[in-house]
Every structure is written in C-alpha cells, then in structure tokens.
Design a protein that fits this description.
By secondary structure, the chain is an all-alpha fold. Among the domains are: 50 residues; 54 residues, no CATH class. The protein has five helices and no strands. The longest helix is centred in the N-terminal third of the chain and has 33 residues. InterPro entries: MIC26/MIC27, MIC26/MIC27_animal.
C-alpha cells in the first residue's frame, strides 16, 4: 500500500516538428529510394552470378581484385580519392549540356589519373592517338570518295 496517492496519468505523445534539415534528408531519401533499390538488386544479382560462375578465370580475376583492395600499394586510396573528387568537381562544372556532363568528369579524372600514373597515361595516349589518327584518315577517305563521286 502506498502512503501517497499517485496523480492520474494523462500523458500525451507530442511529436516534435521536423526541422528543415530533417525534411530535406527525408525528401532526399524518398527521391533516392528507387536508385538504392536498383543498386541493391544489382548487388544481389552480382553476388548470385558470382556464386554460379564456374569459370576459374573469372574467379581468379575477382579474387585478385579483392586481394588487391585488401592489400593495396602505399598511397592507393588517397590517389583514388583525388581522382574521384576530380570527377565530382567535373560534374559540378558541367551544368547544362549533356556532352559537358560526359566530357568534364572524364577529362578531369583522366588528368588526375595521369598525374599519379604517368607511364600508363603515356601508353594510353599513344594507343588513343594512333586510333584517332586512323579514324580521321578513314573519315577523310570517306569524304574524299563522296566528293569524287559527285
């Protein structure tokens, strides 16, 4: 038995109003929900495909990639961060045109990667240069043949 009488409980749950930040995060989560669901589905399909692969070559490549990411060379992640940040800066600079959205991030990421990996950049530039020369020569021949026909 209690010596004191307890007051009647008339409590009501009152929800605090959402702040602008909470509302913005909520809207962002609702907008991004289809994309995150798609990514989760792609990850699920990727893991199912990886489990069903019987090719030793694919498994070896995947395991080598995982091993590389678990034991990266010194300075790999900071370099990767700088290159990724260059791509994000390219997205911000490429407002407007769809072509800019393709060229700016890829170009800035290429410049960032070439700063850290100059030998590979030179090799890629040589191959790209020869292919660009071949394509331009083929285009020149095609235009020349059209000009002569007319």
């Amino acid at each position: 038995l209690s010596l004191y009488s307890s007051p009647a409980r008339e409590t009501k749950y009152v929800e605090n109003p959402q702040t602008q930040l909470e509302e913005g995060v909520s809207r962002l989560r609702h907008v991004m929900e289809p994309y995150t669901a798609w990514c989760q589905q792609m990850l699920r399909l990727t893991f199912e495909a990886r489990a069903s692969l019987s090719s030793a070559l694919c498994f070896d490549l995947f395991s080598e990639g995982c091993e590389f990411l678990q034991n990266p060379p010194a300075g790999f992640y900071p370099r990767l961060g700088v290159i990724g940040f260059a791509g994000i800066v390219g997205l911000f600079l490429a407002r407007g045109s769809k072509i800019k959205k393709l060229v700016y991030p890829a170009g800035l990421m290429g410049i960032g990667a070439s700063m850290y990996y100059p030998q590979q950049a030179v090799a890629i530039a040589k191959v790209a240069g020869t292919q660009l020369y071949d394509w331009s020569l083929q285009g020149y021949i095609a235009v020349e043949s059209l000009w002569k026909d007319n």
